[in-house]
């Protein structure tokens, strides 16, 4: 999608000082860089910034669609990513949360960041 490429370009070309909100929503975002699971190509995805202490919560909701977004499969295949949060860039390793209690706790944090998740 063109808006994704534009968002990433603005965010990265400014050194993390512009394009810090997801499209025109005003919601803070990060850029997650990962490897494509089928192609091996570098993929960059702007996602909502949802934080739990020092950890980031990546919600693979795809606006409530019944399928996961493509980046979810990329992260399942290769969990080592780079996260750009404003001017900070660092490596991270993602994991899927299976424990129901931990999943609920993180979901509650995500709802505070973006209450429309509840509609999904």
Q: Care to describe what's here?
A:
By secondary structure, the protein is α+β, with helices and mostly antiparallel strands. The protein has a single domain, classed as Roll (Pnp Oxidase, Chain A). The protein is built from three helices and six strands; from the N terminus they run H-E-E-E-E-H-E-E-H. A four-stranded antiparallel beta sheet has the order 2-1-5-6, sandwiched between helices. Strands 3-4 form a two-stranded antiparallel sheet. Strand 3 and strand 4 form a beta hairpin. The longest helix is centred in the last third of the chain and has 14 residues, at 100-113. The radius of gyration is 14 Å and the shape is globular. The model has no long low-confidence stretch (mean pLDDT 93).
Q: Which characteristics define this entry?
A:
single chain; 120 residues; alpha+beta; Pnp Oxidase, Chain A; four-stranded antiparallel β-sheet; two-stranded antiparallel ribbon; 3 helices; 25% strand
